[in-house]
Design brief:
Layout: H1 2-12, H2 24-27, E1 33-37, E2 40-45, H3 47-54, E3 59-64, H4 67-76, E4 80-86, E5 89-94, H5 97-110, E6 115-121, H6 125-133
Antiparallel strand pairs: 1-2, 3-5, 3-6, 4-5
Helix pairs in contact: 3-6
Length: 139
């Protein structure tokens, strides 16, 4: 209902509506987004533009038996630049998808984690936000 009201105000009445949120799934509904880190503007544009501009590396979605327990292993795997929980999966920003996929699988299986799937995915706005919000992180 909230987003229906915002859409009505923005399109039917021509109003500009300013929304602040930390929920990137909500921000996906906006026409234009401004990302701020430590009081500084780090990105501005549509969700699609921000994904293209701020996250240029491939992302692997990792499905395994214990995502929370596996997160550190994935983050430490060769070729992984960053890893974060994304629901019940892990999203890993990697240098090379094929090489990192094998390295992640090997690390998880050595530690006894059942790997269900490792597959490339399109970045979400949450992936972009995590990349720019990391202290000293480079998207």
């Amino acid at each position: 209902m909230f987003w229906d009201l915002i859409y009505e105000l923005a399109s039917d009445r021509g109003m500009t509506v300013l929304v602040t949120t930390h929920y990137m799934d909500e921000a996906e509904h906006c026409h234009e987004i401004v990302l701020i880190r430590s009081g500084r503007l780090v990105g501005c544009g549509s969700p699609a533009e921000l994904k293209r501009m701020l996250l240029r590396r491939p992302i692997l979605s990792v499905g395994c038996s214990d995502p929370l327990g596996a997160l550190e292993l994935v983050a430490a795997a060769p070729g992984v630049r960053d890893a974060a929980l994304h629901g019940m999966r892990i999203h890993a920003v990697v240098e090379d998808a094929a090489a990192a996929s094998q390295a992640i699988r090997d690390a998880l299986e050595r530690a006894g984690h059942a790997v269900r799937e490792i597959a490339p995915v399109s970045p979400s706005l949450e992936d972009v936000f995590v990349a720019v919000a990391e202290e000293g992180g480079e998207p």
